[in-house]
Specification:
The protein has 13 helices and ten strands. It is of the alpha/beta class. It folds into two domains: about 200 residues, Rossmann fold; about 100 residues, Rossmann fold, CATH 3.40.50.1100. The longest helix has 15 residues. The N terminus is likely disordered.
């Protein structure tokens, strides 16, 4: 089992809503990673990666991130008393940029999509000798994220399915590592994404990772133009299914979580709930479903109501 770092992340609860269960006709268990320090599951892998390098003498970390990974790096850097530089694309909300700076990180804004910010981050690392922190594509990240399933195995029996959001694939890779370590090799995983960032679905359709032309979704945290090779590789080793939802459906998922579980999450997380609400075909016959509530840094009450007013109807926010 990978090392636990309780000072940097903590075990999260597995919760359910009787009203939601009754409405959907299933038992939905929600793993509340949105309650992690820095607001997302990212801190599991990031803390494992950063502690590994700090023990080897590293004192400066550079990450490209639209929000959640960068916040995890900034939080861990403050706790470990090392430097953090976060490169974000222009689509990153001002509130997230401010929070990064409040942690003490140096924030650079580069490019219109994550891939452009990532190029700058890699160039800064090459020039200055800092440690590059990928938001999703590093074995140390996957190993850290896999602790999520170690906790799940102590909280519940193997479910009929696990539903999670997918961007670049870091959460998927970590969850699948943990599932195989805990003997959950036959439990299907539904990887949900929005129509404007469906790089995983494109890879499944093509039979190999492909690069999208653009990211056109409100769920900007899912904005990787290309899925990682590791994430795609798992499709040959485990029952992993793609689910693509609209922005409207993802926002409805956010509203559901706000109303039924009293928690704010961003559309990149709401899309996983949307996959359950829409009854995606891989869930046929599944009565006990675990959903990963991966994070909520890119949302506040005002933004959620604005999204709902535009795409789902303002009455749902009242």
């Amino acid at each position: 089992m990978p090392p636990m770092h309780p000072k940097l992340y903590h075990a999260t609860p597995l919760v359910e809503s009787p009203s939601l269960n009754k409405r959907l006709g299933r038992r939905i268990l929600v793993k509340m990673e949105c309650h992690q320090p820095a607001g997302s599951f990212k801190i599991r892998g990031v803390s494992h990666l950063m502690l590994t390098h700090v023990r080897q003498g590293a004192d400066h970390f550079i990450c490209s991130s639209g929000g959640n990974a960068g916040l995890a790096v900034a939080h861990c850097a403050a706790a470990l008393k090392v430097r953090a530089t976060i490169v974000v694309p222009e689509t990153t909300r001002t509130s997230v940029r401010k929070l990064l700076a409040d942690y003490g990180a140096s924030v650079h804004v580069r490019g219109t999509v994550w891939n452009e910010a990532d190029q700058t981050a890699r160039e800064l690392c090459a020039a200055g000798g800092a440690v590059y922190v990928s938001p999703f594509d590093d074995p140390l990240l996957w190993e850290g994220h896999s602790t999520l399933v170690d906790e799940l195995a102590s909280q519940t029996d193997p479910p009929d399915a696990i539903v999670l959001s997918i961007g670049g694939g870091g959460l998927l890779c970590g969850v699948l590592r943990g599932m195989h370590r805990n003997g959950w090799r036959d439990v299907p995983v539904i990887a949900a994404e929005t129509e404007g960032a469906a790089s995983f679905a494109a890879a499944v359709a093509a039979g190999h990772p492909v690069t999208l032309d653009a990211i056109t979704t409100v769920a900007t945290s899912l904005g990787a133009l290309r899925i990682s090779d590791e994430a795609f590789g798992w499709t040959a080793k485990h029952p992993v299914f793609s689910a693509v939802l609209s922005d409207q459906e993802a926002i409805k998922g956010c509203v559901t979580l706000a109303n039924d579980l009293r928690v704010l999450v961003e559309p990149a997380c709401g899309v996983a709930m949307a996959a359950i609400e829409q009854g995606c075909s891989p869930l046929d016959g599944c009565q006990n479903v675990v959903m990963m509530a991966c994070g909520g840094n890119g949302v506040d009450t005002q933004s959620l109501c604005e999204w709902a007013a535009v795409t789902a109807g303002f009455e749902q926010c009242r």
